Amino acid sequence: MSTTSGTLLTLSTYVMSRTGKDARARLAERLARRGLRLWHATVLSALDAYGPQVKSELAARLDIHTTDLARVVNDLAKAGYVTCAQRPEDRRLIEVALTPEGRSALTEISAELTAVDDDLLAPLSAAERLLLESLLRRLFAHICRPAADIGCG
Would you give the distance in Å from CA 21 to the centre of its chain? Predict the structure, then answer.
């Protein structure tokens, strides 16, 4: 970021964008070591947080196109991290659920992603990290009104 114009650095949106781009690259690199992408981790996290979900509801919750979600879910099913089953009351609905292997993988992934957080936020004190988290969540809630879900796009 040292070659960036001083004028750009006065724009919070620019700084957030550049910081976010770097954070995303770091997260993606960590996940790639496991053969996963950010969407894989996102889906696992959502299933952990909200329980089994019908594919269409999960896609809406995460603001991802159903076709893209289907690819992610298929990858996770092949890895044994999720199961997919038709709902008995409406066989058109496919419910996705986290498996014990998926929960275990999510625990490991979460530890790695926390390490990325720690590395990225290393210049900040514990109090500054809490403040930053609070401010980011408030901004996130503002831009995601009325849906304060994790996948707000």
Answer: 14
Q: pLDDT at position 105, please?
A: 96
Q: What is the DSSP code (8-state) at residue 52?
A: S
d(CA 48, CA 107): 10
The token duo for 1 is 């970021």
First vs last C-alpha separation in the chain: 26
pLDDT at 4: 64
Residue that is written with structure tokens 């991290």 in the block: 81
**pLDDT value of position 8:** 86
Q: What are phi and psi of 144, to 5 degrees?
A: -100, 10
User: What are 49's two structure tokens?
Assistant: 């947080």
**What are the residue ranges in the chain where pLDDT is below 50?**
1, 147-149, 153
Helix axis angle for 100-120 and 12-32, nearest 10°, is 140
pLDDT of res. 6:
74
* Residues 58 and 52 sit within 8 Å (Cβ to Cβ): no
Tokens of 47: 């299933």
The set of residues, in sequence order, having a beta carbon less than 8 Å from that of 89 and lying 6+ positions away, is none
- Give the residue ranges of DSSP H helices in the chain: 12-32, 38-50, 55-62, 66-78, 100-120, 126-143
